[in-house]
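Q: Hi! First time doing this. I have a protein sequence and I read that you can turn it into a structure. Is that right? Here it is:
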Amino acid sequence: MIVGVPKEIKNHEYRVGLTPASVRELTLRGHQVLVQKNAGTEIGLSDDQYVAAGASMIEAAKEIFARADMIVKVKEPQPQECAMLRSGQILYTYLHLAPDPEQTAALIKSGAICIGYETITDARGGLPLLAPMSEVAGRMAIQAGAAHLEKSKGGRGLLLGGVPGVEAGHVVIIGAGVVGTNALQMAIGAGARVTVLDKSVDRLRQLDLVFGNRIATLYSNAHTIEESVLDADLVIGGVLVPGSAAPKLVTREMIARMKPGAVVVDVAIDQGGCFETSHATTHAEPTYVVDGVVHYCVANMPGAVARTSTFALNNATIGHAIALADKGWEQALKADAHLKNGLNVCQGKVTYQAVARDLGYEYVPADSFLR
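A: Yes, that's right. Below is the predicted 3D structure, encoded as structure tokens:
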């Protein structure tokens, strides 16, 4: 199979779909890998390293899309990339379609086989290709939130961990999954006062056993969210409904009543965000202010630490990339129900139920395409 790796073109996105080590895994199996020149140079992965791993370096993304049987990316394809996809071509990348009707329509029009990292599952019911970026984003959320609490960045002028004789800042984390747990670890390390909310009492019990009285745990409902948010200096939104648009758990009215200069970081923004006042931002302009509250809603947070993120992501994605290249998409999906869960759009049809429901498309099960 010919595998293509274009350079990412989203704002301040420096990650790359395959590292040289991943390229080597594919070329050793007899596959041809086309990598766009300078795709990894921003994170210290030179063209020479890719050539040594067996890749062919290509000048233009257009040629890669024209020649490759499978495109491996990191972020969702931008409009000009969607236009270069063709019928029967495999697209293997993050998609996050539920809050993005324009991308969904473009992928349907392309006729491509579109496999989203974020809906591939594992035997434990987890999302193993989303998890490494959720780990990065959860940890970054505290860094970003702490920085924007500084007065020069529009915040309250508050040091998250406080100092002796001065109260620490209050961090509220909505969602105790991968994002929330990693944010929790960083917040505790910074010396903040931490409250975490989740609908799973079992998950809250697990966190209580680990962190004890260093955190407060609350069952998540409208009342506890409101009380916690109004007392918070920094709120992290880390909720996830796989494949679906994120629920709006923090209302505009709650935002209006928060402390002036408080910060919210919406890690769920890839799925539309869990704050009613959220809209996606970029690393170039990461924040905006609503009712005196600083909103940090960067849709590709891990891109800021692109080298760490690229290696972490490749650890998770390369196994399925090899399966798709070795077997072809039909046999690979037939052989692995967890990979099949990643199929979001196929040959002009929406094959992920939550995406079809949220965007009003007919749902066509993936099995109908597997002979």
